[in-house]
């Protein structure tokens, strides 16, 4: 069963506004495979950064699965980019 975003009387913009209001990035969880390709390093490096406290900490979703808060991952990526433009890493 797949989920499709409902529209309100055909108004996709209103539907998008309602959806984003109730599922902002700070409440959205993403798994490693969804965001890691955008960083340019692998899982081992990511987990080293998580353990050291440099990268965001995961949320335990089930006994065997974790995910990350999307807004925290995006903020971390923005800090990496800012460090590059400020000349330090």
Helices and strands, with pairings:
Elements: H1 12-22, E1 29-30, H2 32-35, H3 43-52, E2 59-60, E3 66-69, H4 70-85
Antiparallel strand pairs: 1-3, 2-3
Protein described:
By secondary structure, the protein is mostly helical. It has a domain of 61 residues: Orthogonal Bundle (Recoverin, domain 1). The chain is 46% helix and 9% strand. Strands 1-3-2 form a three-stranded antiparallel beta sheet. The chain is globular, with a radius of gyration of 16 Å. 3% of the residues are buried.
Question: What key phrases describe this protein's structure?
Answer:
89 residues, mainly alpha, Recoverin, domain 1, three-stranded antiparallel sheet, 4 helices, 9% strand
Main sheet: which strands, in order across?
1-3-2
Radius of gyration: 16 Å
Q: How large a portion of the residues is in β-strands, by DSSP E?
A: 5-15%
Structural class: mainly alpha
Task: Offer a concise description of the structure.
By secondary structure, this protein is mostly helical. The protein has helices at residues 12-22, 32-35, 43-52, 70-85, and strands at 29-30, 59-60, 66-69. The chain contains four helices and three strands, in the order αβααββα.
